[in-house]
Amino acid sequence: MRDLALSQLLSGKSLTSNGGVFAPIIKEFLESALAAEMEVFLDEDQRADGNKRNGKGSKTLKTIAGEVTIDTPADRHSNFEPEIVKKRQRILADNLAPQIISLYGRGLSLRDISAQLKEMYDTEVSASVLSEITDRIIPQVEAWQSRPLDAVYPIAWLDAIHYKVRDEGKVASRAIYNVLAINKEGKKELIGMYVSESEGAKFWLSVLTDLKSRGVKDILIACTDNLSGFSEAILSIFPNTEIQKCVIHQIRNSLKYIASKDKATFMKDLKRVYHAVSKAEAERELEELEQKWDKKYPIVIRSWKNNWPELSVYFKYDEPIRKLIYTTNAVEGFHRQVRKVTKTKGAFTSDMALMKLIYLTTENAAKKWTKPLPNWALTFQQLCIHFDGRLNPDI
């Protein structure tokens, strides 16, 4: 065997490729190890119970040395659970599983992953095997979705991102509901991720109910888009939460109804409203906006007036808090990170396939969420004062 290895090495042939010397070495080692495990397993108690060896089976494993077919010992009662090569294991020692899951989490298709493994290890791994490996994170996803949460979150952003999924042979729309929050330490945390057929206040109600069941007792400030019924859903679960509707969403929705020739002038006037230094000044500018544009664009002006109580919450806070809450940019920024990974995908094969990839993307994003926001100590003190009795320092 040593001479064969030396010969292959000198000839430039890969020792780990099909036909390389490592394959028979691995086969011999595994079969010996399995035989030893079986010997230990069939102790006096097993034999007294009538259990004994019952021939051999075979299994083909994917290894760095290519495919290796090994003989596997069996027992009469089928109770033997080997450790070195588990019963349903098809890739040796799972040594490739972390790499496969990492590549999957970066957005590579199963075909691309298979090609990379072929290039790196000269090993053919089928799409079905790759799918089985990525499915191993499903329990992690489910545990993560149901994990206990903090009692209080100072700020939370709630928004949905939309995808296509194959459902019973047809392509259907899915909304992924995400709740990104700032915890008391000032660190970002995705506290909720849920999938539904469409975005609506009714499903948001179930999302918020789930957050409460997982331990959330209070959200001080919730930042949302202008979805109808959203505020009512939040307040039905967390009645003391302050709701800040996204100013940028309001602007986008307004511009849909403004003629192209008027957009630049209208925006110049509108900026005076949401860039005002105080709520009183903003309301004066809003009155002037109404006087100038109400006759031409009454629907737009009415929308600003009707939504003003929840569009103007940010004016009561200092600049750092204002920047955090007056838009849903924080969660939209997270969604942009997700889309970088998912942009090459067409329709996902299932809801869970979609959830797996977003979970892995979240895990990668969370690696950068280890530090508190800039100047969080001062921001936290201000929030403690604004929400006296609801947010308390741990001192």
Question: How does this model look, in words?
Answer:
This protein is an alpha/beta fold and 395 residues long. The chain folds into two domains: 2-139, no CATH class; 148-386, no CATH class. Helix content is 49%, strand content 18%. The chain has 17 helices and seven strands. The protein has helices at residues 2-11, 22-41, 44-48, 97-105, 110-121, 127-134, 138-145, 201-213, 230-237, 247-255, 260-274, 279-293, 298-311, 319-325, 329-342, 351-366, 376-386, and strands spanning 53-63, 66-75, 152-167, 170-182, 188-196, 218-224, 242-245. Strands 5-4-3-6-7 form a five-stranded mixed β-sheet, sandwiched between helices. Strand 6, helix 9 and strand 7 form a beta-alpha-beta unit. The protein is elongated, with a radius of gyration of 29 Å. Keywords: DNA recombination, DNA-binding, Transposable element, Transposition. One of its GO terms (biological process) is DNA transposition. Required for the transposition of the insertion element. Belongs to the transposase mutator family. GO terms for molecular function: DNA binding; transposase activity.
> How many E-type strands?
7
Q: How many structural domains are formed by the residues?
A: 2
Q: How would you state the average pLDDT, rounded?
A: 84
Q: What is the spatial order of strands in the main beta sheet?
A: 5-4-3-6-7
- Spatial gap, N to C terminus: 68 Å
List segments where confidence is low: pLDDT < 50 over at least 5 consecutive residues.
8-17
What proportion strand?
Answer: 15-25%
Family: Belongs to the transposase mutator family.
GO molecular function, one term: DNA binding
Function: Required for the transposition of the insertion element.
Protein name: Mutator family transposase
